[in-house]
């Protein structure tokens, strides 16, 4: 289950749950912890790719006019 649902402060921003999960995934990855790289570098190397794609889809759905009827993607 995503960490977003586990007794955390609710982020009022759009796509806040996906953003928080992506951030946690990057900060807990071996790339950041063991190789001492920045989360931005690790994201470019392809770590946490599925969450990055989900976050992109959520942000893209905010610009889509059909999202008024379907709702935002992600959680």
Descriptive notes:
The structure is a single chain. The chain has helices at residues 16-27, 30-33, 39-45, 49-63, 67-70. It is mostly helical and 75 residues long. It has a domain at 16-63. The chain starts with 15 loop residues before the first helix and ends in a 5-residue tail after the last helix. The mean pLDDT is 82.
Number of strands: 0
Strand content range? under 5%
Number of helices: 5
Main pleated-sheet profile: none
Function: Involved in an early step of the mitochondrial complex IV assembly process.
Keywords: Disulfide bond
Family: Belongs to the PET191 family.
Organism: Patagioenas fasciata monilis
Summed up:
By secondary structure, the protein is mainly alpha-helical.
Summary tags:
single chain, 75 residues, mainly alpha, 0% strand, Cyt_c_oxidase_assmbl_Pet191, disulfide bond
Can you lay out the helices and strands and say which pair or pack?
Layout: H1 16-27, H2 30-33, H3 39-45, H4 49-63, H5 67-70
Helix pairs in contact: 1-4
């Amino acid at each position: 289950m995503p960490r977003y649902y586990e007794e955390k402060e609710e982020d009022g921003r759009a796509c806040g749950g996906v953003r928080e999960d992506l951030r946690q995934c990057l900060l807990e990855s071996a790339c950041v912890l063991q190789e001492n790289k920045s989360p931005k570098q690790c994201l470019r190397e392809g770590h946490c790719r599925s969450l990055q794609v989900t976050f992109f889809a959520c942000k893209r759905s905010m610009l889509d006019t059909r999202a008024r009827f379907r709702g935002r993607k992600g959680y």
